[in-house]
Amino acid sequence: MATKKHDLDIMVTSFSAHDSTVGSALGRNCKEVNWKVMYDRDQAPIDIKLHVQEHKLHSNEVSIESNGQAIFHGAGAHAKSKMMEDFTYQWPFRGSILGVNETHFFEYHPPHMHDDAWFPATITAQRDDGFF
User: Does pTM top 0.85 for this prediction?
Assistant: First the structure.
């Protein structure tokens, strides 16, 4: 997720949390949490959804989606699974850097050189994945 902007600001534009007391649409003993996260005003926000189904004897099943794609789930497309340990997921946000195509804006130190020599460098392009 790359943006052409030099400043990268992440903003939660929407947050909602519903549990089974809201209504029977979610089901009994169920909780659903939604976030919409924006990283670029010109791009659609990322939709993150957490769904927790509580069962008897404190056995919970969880599913997590990002833009409709499951990032934590059980067998099947929308199946839930027991969470046995902490869950971490990273979205690869990247902004563009200042100085692309500016002659000698950067300096480069070749890793094979053992002295403190630095050389003028020019970055000619930034790829869509954020690398150069």
Answer: no
